UniProtKB/TrEMBL annotation:
Domain named Tryptophan synthase beta chain-like PALP: residues: 78-352
Required cofactor(s): pyridoxal 5'-phosphate
Family that this chain belongs to: Belongs to the serine/threonine dehydratase family.
Record bears the keyword Lyase: yes
Keywords: Lyase, Pyridoxal phosphate
Xref: Pfam families: PALP
InterPro entries: Ser/Thr_Dehydratase, TrpB-like_PALP, TrpB-like_PALP_sf
Family annotation (PANTHER family): ACT DOMAIN-CONTAINING PROTEIN, THREONINE DEHYDRATASE, MITOCHONDRIAL-RELATED
One of the record's GO molecular function terms: threonine deaminase activity
GO BP terms in the entry: isoleucine biosynthetic process; L-serine catabolic process; L-threonine catabolic process
Phylogenetic placement of the source organism: Eukaryota, Metazoa, Ecdysozoa, Arthropoda, Hexapoda
Lyase found in the keyword field: yes
Name recorded for this polypeptide: L-serine deaminase
Domain of life: Eukaryota
Length: 358
């Protein structure tokens, strides 16, 4: 019995460069429909402060999440997120294994990212909630943070690189966030966001390496165990590493025999490179269908948490991701992003043949 986490939904979007949105705001922000207080930013805000550190993500002192962190997250977020189904797949016969899909695309914003975002927001102090939060994201973390910050009445700003899908940029605006479209890639967008956080006193919420983000994502693992018992393996797409860190922590605490398998695209194998290097290392990324996994450097906390619990890491080619997207549409009637199809792609590519017949 193999459980495959299918984290992201939405159409497969052609990425288009955006310098500004049609309303003419070069700062990339406008009033959200929900009436949150909007912030005017100046060019000075966008000047990068060199060597600014994220206090929650320190290379020399990584933080490992534990099972108690995840159970705490599960209790606090349960009224704000969906407990998504984990259903047997129509692809079981085709793949030759008992395959179950954890359908995280049924979250309101279409992604598991809501779990960590909500928990991180709930754990802020009252003063931090008053001042607000900021993050950098290509889309899914930005949407989850924007949506739940709006629901909780917390000011939120997201910096999205110019390659971010237009649909996701607009969704964040619709959820009431201050949206800044700036930076040629995620690394630049993150530097801008952290510089703004330093100047304005915002809390920077790393989308994959903040301890509360990892704990929130780990609630998926608790649900899989509740729904499936003790599966033979859980296959998890890997970008920055926060999802696999949380899920592995939850599952291994309850079911040590369950294998944890990570999957990356060969266009952005940053976790595999980190394992070879002995720690997170900058990995040049190429354009990929799995843009949600395109993180150039995996998280320090996520890496330290996940590696001791990881049983296997595989890298898949783009053509297998494309095929997995197609088969999910045909057989499951699910439209998922490339990142969400990565686990199935690994099965189609023959990387998990040891689970045939299980």
């Amino acid at each position: 019995m193999t459980s495959f986490t299918e984290p992201e939904n939405g159409e497969v979007i052609t990425v288009k460069k955006v310098d500004q949105i049609a309303n003419g705001h070069t700062n990339g922000h406008e009033n959200g429909i929900n009436g949150n207080q909007q912030v005017e930013f100046t060019e000075e805000d966008f000047e990068i402060i060199e060597d600014v550190e994220d206090p929650y993500c320190i290379a020399e002192n990584p933080v490992k999440v534990c099972f108690q962190d995840i159970t705490s997250a599960a209790f606090l977020i349960k009224n704000g997120i969906q407990n998504t189904p984990c259903q047997k797949s129509h692809l079981s016969e085709m793949t030759g294994m008992d395959l179950y899909l954890k359908k995280e695309f049924l979250q309101f914003t279409g992604s598991f990212k809501e779990r960590g975002a909500r928990y991180a927001l709930l754990m802020l102090s009252e003063e931090q909630k008053r001042i607000g939060v900021i993050s950098a994201s290509l889309g899914n973390h930005a949407q989850g943070l924007s949506y739940h910050a709006n629901r909780l009445g917390i000011p939120v700003t997201v910096v999205m690189p110019t390659a971010a899908p237009i649909m996701k940029i607009q969704k964040c605006r619709n959820y009431g966030a201050n949206v800044i479209v700036k930076g040629d890639n995620m690394s630049e967008a993150k530097k801008i966001a952290m510089s703004i956080a330093k100047r304005r006193g915002y809390v920077y919420v790393n989308g994959y390496d903040h301890p509360h983000i990892m704990a929130g994502q780990g609630t998926i693992g608790l649900e899989i165990i509740e729904q499936m018992g003790q599966p033979d393996a859980v296959v998890v797409p890997v970008g920055g590493g926060g999802l696999i860190a949380g899920v592995a922590t939850a599952i291994k605490a309850i079911s040590p025999r369950t294998k944890i398998i990570g999957v990356e695209s060969d266009k952005c194998p940053s976790f595999s490179r980190a394992m070879e290097h002995g720690g997170p290392i900058l990995t040049p990324n190429m354009a990929t269908l799995a843009d949600g996994l395109a993180v150039p450097t995996v998280g320090y906390n996520a890496f330290a948490t996940a590696v001791p619990l990881l049983d296997k890491m595989v890298v898949v080619r783009e053509e297998w991701i494309a095929l997995a997207i197609l088969r999910l549409v045909e057989q499951e009637k699910c439209v998922v992003e490339g990142a969400g199809a990565a686990g199935l792609a690994a099965i189609f590519a023959g990387h998990l043949n040891e689970y045939r017949g299980k």
